[in-house]
Amino acid sequence: KTFRPRKKFEPGTQRFELYKKAQASLKSGLDLKTVVQLPPGESINDWIAVHVVDFFNRINLIYGTMSEYCTERSCPIMSGGLKYEYRWQDDSKYKKPTKLSAPQYMCMLMDWIEMLINNEDIFPTRIGVPFPKQFQQVCTKILTRLFRVFVHVYIHHFDSIINMGAEAHVNTCYKHFYYFIREFSLIDHRELEPL
């Protein structure tokens, strides 16, 4: 239930080309700090959109691979250790921050992000259609919540990741994510404290 099919970019579109550039850079062995930098002449909003969708796909896959270890019983509270608790608020069903189990939080999060990235008014895919004024704010909120998945996985389930032999993949994905959010100042520094 927490796994979702990958969101894809249409071949021939500018975002598809940006996605190919980003993927080629990642596979070339380049320094991740350099890879996340905006390519010359490209739109920052397009670059951010491509990365938000890619991070959604990757983090959703990471959580999906270890979700059998993250249950209502093992994780009754969405947290990052004893010091950090994450509550869900979506301004529709959950108007106030609400305590949820980690699996419930993850399910709500992935549904919420999927709804946003499929919304053409927020993530336009047609050439010439501008991004909304609040686009980067929406992306900041998405990325902040995706970061919480890393926090929960690293603090509560990293032993499972190691047992699956997936730690190199998770670590590389986290480093890519971290360098990207730092490059564009997309997450408040206080949110990063747990890791």
UniProtKB/TrEMBL annotation:
UniProt xrefs under Gene3D superfamilies: MOB kinase activator
Record keyword Ribosomal protein present: no
Pfam families: Mob1_phocein
GO molecular function: kinase activity
Keywords: Kinase, Metal-binding, Transferase, Zinc
InterPro entries, sorted: MOB_kinase_act_fam, MOB_kinase_act_sf
The keyword Kinase belongs to this UniProt entry's keyword annotation: yes
Stated name of the protein: MOB kinase activator 3C
Residues reported to bind Zn(2+): 70, 75, 152, 157
